[in-house]
Design brief:
The protein is an alpha+beta fold and 112 residues long. It has 3 helices and 4 strands. The protein has a single domain, classed as 2-Layer Sandwich (YaeB-like fold).
């Protein structure tokens, strides 16, 4: 069964910002979605089940590319893309970002 991708406002805003500075991001993101495997990425402690995926940047590969934070709802095959950031600009989620991710996931779970 194929995945159903849903985007938070936070994700959309960050993706739009990153696209302004990286013209190849659109192609990189399309490849990421095409090859996506929801169970292949590690969970982030303290987020209620969010996972962190590496997404390649054309000139830097996966290790120096982007990080996509998402939540997978197995029963519905829904993948909630919560946020995206450039690894060069931000190493990991801050404590405030982790708390924000947890609130978003709690809202998703409450709506189910």
């Amino acid at each position: 069964m194929p995945y159903h991708f849903l985007f938070t406002e936070w994700f959309d805003r960050n993706l739009k910002f990153l696209r302004k500075h990286n013209p190849t991001l659109r192609a990189d993101f399309e490849a990421f979605l095409r090859d996506f495997d929801a169970d292949a990425h590690p969970m982030i402690p303290g987020t209620g089940g969010a996972r962190k995926a590496r997404m390649k940047a054309k000139a830097r590969g996966k290790r120096g590319g982007y990080r996509v934070i998402y939540y997978f709802v197995t029963a519905d095959q829904e993948v909630w893309l919560i946020t995206i950031y450039d690894k060069v600009q931000q190493e990991n989620l801050s404590a405030a970002d982790t708390a924000r991710v947890l609130k978003i996931i709690e809202a998703i779970q409450a709506a189910k």
